Amino acid sequence: xxxxxxxxxxxxxxxxxxxxxxxxxxxxxxxxxxxxxxxxxxxxxxxxxxxxxxxxxxxxxxxxxxxxxxxxxxxxxxxxxxxxxxxxxxxxxxxxxxxxxxxxxxxxxxxxxxxxxxxxxxxxxxxxxxxxxxxxxxxxxxxxxxxxxxxxxxxxxxxxxxxxxxxxxxxxxxxxxxxxxxxxxxxxxxxxxxxx
Length: 196
Fold this sequence. Notes:
The structure is a single chain. The chain is an alpha+beta fold. 46% of the residues lie in helices and 19% in strands. The chain has 7 helices and 5 strands; from the N terminus they run H-E-E-H-H-H-E-E-E-H-H-H. The chain has helices spanning 4-23, 56-62, 66-69, 84-95, 142-162, 167-182, 186-195; strands at residues 41-45, 51-54, 100-107, 113-124, 130-138. It has a 5-stranded antiparallel sheet with strand order 2-1-5-4-3. Helix 5 (142-162) packs across helix 6 (167-182).
């Protein structure tokens, strides 16, 4: 039977180890992992974006074990090739109680990456209050990813040129101008790319 002091020491040591792992810098590699046609990556988060559930496929593709993922911010798998404006849009929609579809490039524990078509929805309690978020990701259309890759590169350049304070607003304007030019909503844009 472990003493209370020993349990606390083990808990502190485990927390320090987890913090060190979480802060490790993952160097992106040009190694794409492609989802299988019948794969579905599923995760749930709380209102702060901390992972509360990760399915086996999520763990397989991310390269992280469940014990590492649970309690971590979902952005632990955010690839640096993702524009900040896309996440601002995504969070704005789900925080407002609406679902959203988005193409997302994720980074793996080993630096590899994988693309997904994410469907993110709010989770509601019995009273209709948002209590967290639920995301199901599937294999994206390869043609869509070619287009999205170029779009995201342009958005990242705009964000870099605008500077930290104006980055998201500048990139969002560019995306909104593109959608206006096409005469479609963001959701229509994403779903058209997926079905092309």
